Amino acid sequence: MTGAAASDEAFLVEWLTVGVVRVDERLVVSSANAAAHAFADRQPGGMIGRSVIEAFVDRRIEEIARTARDTGSATGELVLRPPTGPTVVVRARRAPSGGAWLVIEDVSELRRLERIRTEFVDNLSHELRTPLTTIGLLAEALAREAETAAGGIPARMRDRIAKIEVETGHLGQMVNELLDLARIEGGGPLVMLDEVDLGRLARAAVERLRLFAERQGAELAVEVAPDLPLVRGDEDRLGQVLVNLLHNAVKFSPGGGLVTVRVRGLGDEVVTSVEDHGIGIAPADQARIFERFYKADRARVRGGGTGLGLAIARHIVESHGGRIWVVSEEGRGSTFSFSLPVAGREAG
Ligand code: ADP
User: Fold this and answer.
1) Up-side HSE of residue 252: CA atoms within 13 Å toward CB?
2) Does ligand 1 lie within 6 Å of residue 281's CB atom?
3) What would you measure as the largest C-alpha separation in the chain, in angstroms?
4) How far is 250 from 272, CA to CA, in rounded Å?
């Protein structure tokens, strides 16, 4: 490299807003740009010749540098000079000629915006839930009164009441999903203490969706293998995965049809699947539907939806040490499955 190119590069590195630090084999800083000095709260040049721990007064950064030097790479997120300093992501790589490079990026603003979004969604969903519950209960009461009204009420009116119930159910489901997303992104821990009978959970989920399925003209069936082993996990959350999958199976079967839930043991796993004969999913979409907010074909989507249900389901299943996947053919239907390790294996 020519001298001019080298000094151009030095100029560029100096001008970056990410911190760039070079440490040698002993983890002593041999060069660092202006941004790195600002992160370390030091005068220009004040880091050079000091060990990483001395330069940043932070064990975690030293640990990241050491791990990168010894293993090839390391990354971590931390608050500098807690609690008031910036939140930074530190990425480190072993340098080809020994020692390591560290790149430090300020993510304070990003994390602040994420927090605001999460709080906003959380507050909004809570606010929406109360009136929605009231509307749902009123619609239910209306439906009951319509059944018993002296002389009966016109079929059209009964139909409209049923539609209000179904749509309120959709809205309730969306609000719950938004709330769940806020909780998941808030990083609340899962309670993994229950020994869960997925067969029982499947029957309970089917009961919960019976009314919705009837109104959509779909039929629900459950097949549970005998002597099903238990899994360890959070029963409410796993129930929610089943409800999400069933809800989708019915929602995306506009012509009705049979929706079957199967639960069986397979090796040291329990596999649960939900099969429908609905619209199916194009191969290109199959890879993406588990992402947050992804919906396969907006024009076709009936009854709305947030595009969150599957992202939440995947998060729950994976945090239980399981996997979730789909097999589908457009126009023929879909089978969503998830596997979870049986309780005995991990209990020990
Ligand atoms: P939502 O149902 O709220 O749109 P999901 O995350 O539950 O969000 O699903 C994402 C997308 O995956 C849906 O919008 C739909 O395009 C597709 N999908 C999910 N389940 C099925 C199914 N059983 N049949 C066909 N498409 C489905």
Assistant:
1) 32
2) yes
3) 97
4) 17
Q: How far is the CA of 167 from the centre of ligand 1 (A)?
A: 17
* Atom of ligand 1 lying closest to residue 244 CA: 7
333 lines ligand 1 (CB under 6 A): no
From the list 283, 215, 270, 213, the residue with the least C-alpha distance to 243 is: 213
Beta pairing class for 257-266 and 218-224: parallel
pTM of the model: 0.64
Cis peptide before 83 (omega within 30 of 0): yes
User: Which tens digits make up the pLDDT trace of 42-101?
Assistant: 999 999 999 999 999 999 999 999 999 999 999 999 999 988 999 999 999 999 999 999
Distance from the alpha carbon of residue 307 to the mean position of ligand 1, in angstroms = 7
Most confident of 127-141, 262-276, 332-346: 262-276
Is 90 exceeded by the pLDDT of residue 212? no
150 C-alpha vs ligand 1 centroid, how far in Å?
42
Distance of CA 148 to the CA centre of its chain: 45
Ligand 1 centroid, distance to 289 Cα (angstroms): 7
